[in-house]
Amino acid sequence: METALAVRARGISKCFGDVVALDGVDLDVARGQVHGLVGPNGAGKTTLLGLMLGLSAADGGVLEILGTPVGRALAAPDGVAGFVDGPGLYPSLTARQNLAALAALRGQGSGTPGIDRALAEVGLTDVADDRIRGFSLGMRQRLGLAAALLTSPRLLVLDEPANGLDPAGKKHVHGVLLRLAAEGTAVVLSSHRMDDLEALCSEVTILSTGRIVFSGPLGKLAAENRELDYRLLTSDPRAARELAAATPGMRVVEHGGQWRGAEALVVRGLVPALDDLVARLVRDGVAVRELAPVVSPLEAAFLALTGGRDEPAEPGEQAPHAAHTAHAAHTTHATDAAHAPQNHQDEDSPQDEQEPQEAAR
Ligand SMILES: Nc1ncnc2c1ncn2[C@@H]1O[C@H](COP(=O)(O)OP(=O)(O)OP(=O)(O)O)[C@@H](O)[C@H]1O
């Protein structure tokens, strides 16, 4: 019987010289699941994704991909597609030609009927015949995803696929990933964008300096995590404040301030106390117009578990946005097998005519 797990990792370790990139990592990813990897820069996300793509081999532990143990040979396991450090593409070819070339490299023939469909799925039909050296980062990311789609993968592995995507591009990419998952493909992706992870993933794994500090359903973070701050907009802020102050386990954070032109209340507590407060508001005829965490449960857990800030935001303070500041320092580095040929070349890059090392498999 086929295993229900697309990825099963037990005790995975990986070092680069003295640097311990992964340290005893256990991970299960079910088929049909979109699983997010999150962690600070250097946490080991790319290294772990590279192991799944067969770009490097673990030093220790057991890794099974789609039910088959991965050995030390550097090759993408059957049924796996994706990329780390951006897709490998030929800058001097058009988008369509790139896909045809990759299909030909895989022995699929350059006339693969799925090419037009894949381009449409990622929203690149209009630029299908443009050379990709003029493509933005987001367009390259989408083309990399289209290349992966051509193989009908059962496991799709993507390193920061949302990088550089505009809202339309993000909509296309999210749509494709959710469709694939609904059809049974497992998707493992890394991101620094908590909002993307929350929109896409049913489960997340938080890595910190090579170790897993949380792995499981997103809902578990919300339910199990410490007290959160919630912004509450109601039809009667004064009554809401009194009710919140009277609700056991709920604290009113002073200076909720204005929120989109209305007087907001910020309350702090666990989910059961919040439920109690909402019931009291309803009972007293106070309409709840908006209720949302000031910092999302995932972001709060990320900050708490990875050594970031572990307290809810102070009254009136801007919510911390690790997701947005953590972007800057992404490093492109070689793993055991080279895998990121030409992501951001200049027009005249001497690499332009080289063959891409097949990152989108
Ligand atoms: N080929 C390599 N040679 C040397 N060190 C490496 C190599 N690949 C990764 N590392 C190191 O291993 C650690 C984990 O790196 P990795 O790229 O997996 O982290 P990451 O979580 O993907 O980070 P980021 O969010 O910045 O992309 C880092 O300390 C990194 O410097």
TrEMBL record:
InterPro entries with a match to the protein in the record: AAA+_ATPase, ABC_transporter-like_ATP-bd, ABC_transporter-like_CS, P-loop_NTPase
Record's keyword terms, sorted: ATP-binding, Nucleotide-binding, Transport
Gene3D superfamilies found in the cross-reference section: P-loop containing nucleotide triphosphate hydrolases
Residue ranges of domain ABC transporter in the record: 7-234
Region (Disordered): 308-361
MF terms in GO: ATP binding
Superkingdom, natural source: Bacteria
Family: Belongs to the ABC transporter superfamily.
Identification of the protein by name: ABC transporter ATP-binding protein
Organism per entry: Actinacidiphila acidipaludis
